[in-house]
Design a protein that fits this description.
Helices cover 74% and strands 3% of the residues. It contains 23 helices and two strands. The protein has helices at residues 5-23, 28-44, 47-51, 85-101, 110-129, 133-142, 144-154, 159-187, 194-197, 204-221, 230-237, 240-265, 267-272, 274-293, 298-317, 322-353, 364-367, 369-382, 389-404, 406-430, 438-441, 448-466, 469-487, and strands spanning 61-69, 74-80. Helix 16 (322-353) packs antiparallel against helix 22 (448-466) and helix 19 (389-404) runs parallel beside helix 22 (448-466).
Length: 491
Amino acid sequence: MNQQLLSLAIWVPILGALPVFWAGSDRRCLVRWLALAVAVAGFLVTIPLYTGFDPKIAGMQFVEQAPWIPRFNVQYFLGVDGISMPFILLNAFITVMVVLAGWEVIEEKQAQYMGAFLVMSGLMNGIFSALDGVLFYVFFEASLIPMYIIIGVWGGPNRVYAAIKFFLYTLLGSLLMLVALLWLFLESRGSFNILDWQQLQIGMKPQILIFIAFLVSFAVKVPMWPVHTWLPDAHVEAPTGGSVVLAAIALKLGAYGFVRFSLPIVPDAAHYMANFMITLSLIAVVYIGFVALVQTDMKKLIAYSSISHMGFVTLGFFIFNQLGIEGALVQMISHGFVSGAMFLCVGVMYDRVHSRQIADYGGVVHTMPKFAALFVFFAMANSGLPATSGFVGEFMVILGAIKANFWLGFLAATTLILGAAYTLWMIKRVVYGPVGNHHVAEMQDISGREFLFLALLALCVLGMGLYPFPFTEVMHASVDNLLKHVAVSKL
């Protein structure tokens, strides 16, 4: 069974979505419980990936390999290391939260809504475990379809515009990646094996061109400045579940691409382009932080916050030290918990007042004390408060940056001030003060179901903040191996 765990992680949610679709939206109770059962099953099959993982092994584990398209040597080739494995668990866990969050909120086409998230969950797991270039590309592109449908069907008034913008940005960026994959296929004499590509002897000029091709694709996904403009539109128009998956998982795909493709396959180009990447990352951290300060829409503020936090991730990758890369990976996992929780909190309020504008709230603590306590806790984590997961990754990246260059770490640390500024400014206006209006006065505190998914996320944020060792332990050997590989020039 251990040899098929990754296949189960991919196909249980995808195939499990079929009976959900079949149940039809007129049987809402059945659809909900079916979707929850499939999501929980999808999460349970990923747990042995962690419990059976050997943190001392730097290479791939739980490997599955079978011919897929023999004529072109394309294989169904799966495997995970300490870098990719945690994201499969994160993805499966977030899927359960999204199903719970959409339990009563989605009234139209509920079967299709739940099914789309289950399909996307399986496709995301495929991206994190694919070791064949074609397989990775297929999963990478296929994951666009359910998200496009989720935004376009269940989104806000401008949902069609936001869905098309999201689709075009990410699809066009991926076309250059396809060119790079084909070039590597020819250079490796007919292999799509990503691990084989890491051993290629490639000249500096081709390395730079390949790096740029990957950069265009992955930068859009992260998203990095200046190709970030699709994200606020997508977040604002997407339903709550769509925003949660977009922030918690989809943004991680681009960052994951850098550590799976850009750094190990073209390491010399990665070093050559490092200053450029660090500059773009710092612009995202600092400039986008200021942009978040002036937002009046809660979703848009959290969306810009996500861009700023993901700038920390790309910064950590390109300072080429253990603290930086491990900190960036921890930050990715933490951001999955925190940003997902923040969007769920906004969704809870939107379900009651049907507004995302900060000015339409005020004094929420008086009518929703349990919710306010959780919302403030997640806001503190978003600000990087010590003892929360939001602090751990950022602190490690700042330490890694200072180790590389003091002023680099100093600039990166400004995000702690900016993050606190825009997050607490929002909390002050939404949660505290007198009751803003009669809509706020009529708000009911969170239900047992809403408390369940917010409390689970709060436990994850607190647990990771107090004891990050289980997360850093599994990635240490793989990150060390990556750094050794990147440090050795192939020229």
